[in-house]
Design a protein that fits this description.
single chain, 121 residues, mainly beta, four-stranded antiparallel β-sheet
Length: 121
């Protein structure tokens, strides 16, 4: 069974920073694309950042220059460094991973439970 475990959310003031982490656990898995989505109150879920298995990142325009996504393939972990946080960044942040399962030789999409990020003065 594959699980994505997220951590690092919290309450910060505008201009502050947080580092989110998400680790994929399980046997017989290879993580492909991983990323972060977020959903603010009353809004649809949106892509924040994604990173390929080779480490190539892409960002939403709203966070470009402020957030940095990275990964540690040895740990099956993806990170999101959030800097210069704004109130509009307030949302539940969800980890995403596309995972190749060796047992079935198929890929599957997995989601974390979400971690709350609140930016408020």
């Amino acid at each position: 069974q594959v699980q994505l475990v997220e951590s690092g959310g919290g309450l910060v003031q505008p201009g502050g920073s947080l580092r989110l982490s998400c680790a994929a656990s399980g046997s017989g898995l290879i993580t492909n694309t991983m990323g972060w989505y977020r959903q603010a109150p009353g809004k649809q879920r949106e892509l924040v950042a994604i990173i390929s298995s080779g480490g190539n990142p892409n960002y939403a325009d709203s966070v470009k220059g402020r957030f940095t996504i990275s990964r540690d393939n040895a740990k099956n972990t993806v990170y999101l460094q959030t800097n210069s946080l704004k109130p509009e960044d307030t949302a539940v942040y969800y980890c995403y991973a596309n995972v190749y399962r060796l047992t079935t030789r198929r890929t599957y999409d997995y989601w974390g439970q979400g971690t709350q990020v609140t930016v408020s003065s």
